[in-house]
Specification:
By secondary structure, this protein is of the alpha+beta class. The protein has one domain (4-96): Alpha-Beta Plaits (2-Layer Sandwich). The protein has 2 helices and 7 strands. The chain has helices at residues 13-22, 38-52, and strands spanning 4-9, 24-27, 30-33, 59-65, 73-78, 83-88, 91-96. It has a 5-stranded antiparallel β-sheet, covered by helices on one side. The chain has a two-stranded antiparallel ribbon with strand order 6-7.
């Protein structure tokens, strides 16, 4: 069960209340849990996705340790342009995904 971190920005209060009910709010808008199971993480993300449709201008990022992906860090995003993680000579980098249709 890996460490999980959720970061919210400009999110409605219900996001913050919900996350505070199941994770530690380490700093404003930053929530962590040292040993969250995959099932719990997926259920929390499902709730955030459902609520996100009505959250104008908000962004949510979920990070967790994941040995099955290159770089060992899983990431999901809502709002901000999507990002992917790269392992570049042992350094994990965040890459902004650009829309190819522009």
């Amino acid at each position: 069960m890996p460490m999980s971190v959720v970061i919210v920005r400009n999110a409605p209060d219900r996001f913050r209340g919900f996350l505070a009910s199941c994770m530690l709010e380490a700093a404003p808008g930053i929530y962590s849990h040292p040993e969250m199971s995959r099932g719990v993480r997926e259920r929390i993300w499902g709730v955030l996705e459902d609520w996100f449709v009505s959250a104008n201008g908000a962004s949510v990022v979920l990070l967790w340790a994941d040995k099955s992906v290159h770089g060992g860090l899983g990431i999901l995003t809502l709002g901000e342009p999507p990002r992917s993680l790269l392992d570049y000579d042992g350094v994990i980098l965040s890459r902004l995904e650009h829309n190819q249709n522009k």
